[in-house]
Amino acid sequence: APLRRARGAAAAAAGQSDAVDATPGAPTPRESGDELWRQISGNGEVTVLCVEGSELVREMRARHGTSATAGVALGRTLLGTLLLGAFKGPDEQTQVTFTGRGPLGTIKAIATHDCQVRGLVTNPHIDLPPRADGQLNVEEAVGPGTVAVVRSHPSWKEPFTGIVQIRDGGIATDLTHYMSDSEQQNGALGLGVQVKGDGEVLGAQGYMVQVLPFASEETLTQLEANLAAMPPPSQIAARGIRPDQVALMLLEGLQPEEGYAQSFEPRYGPCCEDDIKRRMRRAVATLPPQEVDEIFEDVGYLEVNCEFCKVSARWESQAELDADSPVDPEEEAETDGAAPGAK
Predict the structure, then answer these.
(1) Among candidates 9, 39, 17, which has minimal Cα distance to 212?
(2) Which residue ranges does the chain devote to CATH 3.55.30.10?
(3) Are strands 201-211 and 46-52 parallel, antiparallel or unpaired?
(4) Using CA atoms, how far apart are residues 117 and 36, in angstroms rounded to an integer?
(5) Class of the CATH-defined domain 33-268
(6) CA angle, corner 139, sides to 245 and 54, nearest 5?
(7) Which of helix, strand or coil describes residue 109?
(8) Are 193 and 75 contacting, i.e. CB atoms less than 8 angstroms apart?
(9) How far apart, in whole angstroms, are the C-alpha atoms of residue 173 and residue 150?
């Protein structure tokens, strides 16, 4: 239904930020490892983005120690946020937040235009009994609530924010309806993370289909048939089907444009030392100066932990803090995911 619901409406948010021009070419698909692949139908009416993200989801679990249910929920959110945020303008960020009333609490992910994504979940060790069909009960773990998507850029006066109700808590359906209801963008998402009972990640795959508002009836009919024939993304991962092959499955009968594709390597992060210190320095800038002084006096140092990367930035003195990279007062401080104080 979302392929047709928004037909004839302008995709406002996508029009604001879709500033990366694809350069015709023929990149060689990767044979292994994580990859984000973008391809366009021959008539230009459909774009597909397909991601193999097993390694980045494994890194997420290594950093957060997620249970099976929490790992699937956060892993799907990472993949979905990555797909929503990829191929945007330089320095643009996309943040997705599920605020559900289920036991997992808040699930949040932030993606950059160059295919880096990081995330967190309030209760990463929560697990629930499986559903009657034996599948993990991600929907109940997320629970009812809202999903918010914030697209931001340093040059924008204010970010674009869209909020919709959580439809079922399965992540993919919720983000598909967000695209339709909030951004008036025709499309569909498929997200899958396959795990063992102890939470070990076996594979992670996802795809996003974007359809122009005035796509032909023939295109929509063919695309709906292709989507109906697609195996679940977790099965795609288990079978080792690469993203470029998934794109061809989605574009079956739509004559994918030859020699016109893009390939990126998605990564978890950024979690490098310089980036952590820059982001945590911005978080410190939001604290009252008196509170910072008291921490140095009482503890002897200031340490701020990034809840996304599970890495800390530390300053041994006020002088070291002052000498660090200057903070632009006009830049929005990233306080979510930062835990100031001493460890």
Answers:
(1) 9
(2) 33-268
(3) antiparallel
(4) 12
(5) alpha beta
(6) 35
(7) strand
(8) yes
(9) 18
Write the single-letter amino acid at 189: L
**Token pair in block for residue 66:** 């997620």
What CATH code is assigned to 273-341?
3.90.1280
- Tens-place pLDDT, residues 271-308: 988 888 888 888 898 899 899 999 999 999 999 999 99
- Extract the tokens encoding 26: 């023929």
Contacts of 247 (CB under 8 A, 6+ apart): 37, 38, 39, 48, 50, 207, 256, 261
Query: What's the token pair of residue 321?
Result: 């803090």
Residue 166: how many other CB atoms lie within 10 Å: 23
CA distance 247 to 273: 36
In the block, residue with structure tokens 């032909």: 216
Query: Whole-model pTM?
Result: 0.87
The separation between CA 16 and the C-alpha centre of its own chain, rounded to angstroms, equals 19
Q: How far is CA 54 from its chain centroid?
A: 14
Q: Smallest Cα–Cα separation from 3: which of 182, 211, 232?
A: 211
Cα separation of 127 and 212, whole Å? Answer: 40
* Run of H or E including 297: helix 289-299
Count of H helices and E strands in the chain? 12, 14
Match 């994504």 to its residue by tokens.
Answer: 117
| Pairing mode of beta strands 338-341, 201-211 | unpaired
Q: What is the pLDDT of residues 240-269, one digit of tens each?
A: 899 999 999 999 999 888 778 999 999 999
Strand order from edge to edge, sheet including 267-268: 160-165, 145-152, 93-100, 106-112, 116-121, 267-268
Tokens of 244: 């470029």
